[in-house]
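We emphasize that the prediction below concerns an isolated chain of 158 residues; any contacts that depend on oligomerization or on bound cofactors are therefore not represented. The input was used exactly as deposited, without trimming of termini.
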Amino acid sequence: MKSLCAAAMAALLFGPAAVAQDQAADNTAIVKEKVRADKKLLVAANMGLSEQEAAAFWPVYDAYQKELDVLNGRTRDLIKRYADAFNAGAGTVSDETAKSLLDEALAIDAAELDVRRSYVPKFGKVLPSAKVARYYQIEQKIRSALKADLSAGIPLVQ
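Result of the prediction step, given as a token string:
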């Protein structure tokens, strides 16, 4: 898993707010799709799925990723809102803006937990519990690495 380039994954999974602004949009879409495919290969390489398990797992995985993409979009929008406020305030944001941003960040975290919880029984219908737990470990490691890399480039609120 260490072979993943966390910076590229964060930029591509969390969208344009994390991508250099002068990069062509179609190149971003192509690279984003490549990163998603690489993530899927990473998951496949670490899951040890039988053919039967794989046939049942991947549709649930794809649906789960779509729901996570919605949250990634919210995160991208939140980062853009923060960047706009930070830049407009010469490195500071108002208390009102800070509260609004914090509320949205916590709402995104809560929504992600809700999605994760809602998919446990869905994955449990197609995989044994040990493999569901393994998948959640893999997914969490990937998302944690992405979030850590992404947050490293975001200045603290002043």
